[in-house]
Write a structure and sequence with these properties.
Structural class: alpha+beta
Shape: globular
Order of helices and strands: EHEEEHEEEHHE
Number of helices: 4
Number of strands: 8
Radius of gyration: 14 Å
Length: 159
């Protein structure tokens, strides 16, 4: 199972973050088959809650691309949506993360994504589309990791 995380906190070409995510999912469909889409979630910016809030989602895809090629394609989609890299965790028009690529573990790209277990805004959408997925590094499901956080700030807002 290939899992992707999506986020947006800034408008792009007049489109609100939620609409940007919808367009990004369609763009990803040009090089991967989208098999599941989570609800969208509102969450405060992290780590600085004074930044604009995010809209987050997760999707499952099928692809013949290698993890490296898939990540490169995701970066191209980000660029097409005006992504500027001003610093780690800065507000952005679009953020696409390769969360998990089947059972592959590795460092380039880091798989599964090292931040999954600590981010409710990733885990809540994953719970929608892949409740039975088990992290190959922690041995936990999204629900178990979410419960371990104790506090959930991500709020479902629809699709």
């Amino acid at each position: 199972m290939i899992l992707l995380g999506l986020g947006s906190s800034l408008s792009f070409c007049g489109s609100a973050p939620q609409e940007t995510l919808r367009h990004a999912i369609r763009s990803i469909g040009c090089f991967a088959t989208v098999t599941a889409v989570s609800r969208f979630y509102a969450s405060p910016a992290w780590p600085d809650p004074l930044d604009p809030p995010f809209v987050n989602a997760a999707i499952a895809v099928k692809s013949d691309l290698s993890p490296e090629a898939l990540l490169a394609a995701l970066h191209q989609v980000e660029d097409a949506f005006g992504r500027e890299r001003h610093g780690k965790n800065a507000p952005r028009t679009l953020d696409l993360d390769l969360l998990s690529y089947n059972r592959v573990t590795g460092l380039s790209p880091a798989l599964p994504h090292p931040g999954i277990a600590s981010r409710d805004f990733v885990l809540a959408p994953l719970l929608d589309i892949a409740p039975g997925w088990v992290s190959p590094t922690t041995g936990l499901t999204p629900g178990e990791m979410l419960a371990a956080l104790g506090k959930v700030t991500a709020t479902p807002i629809g699709r």
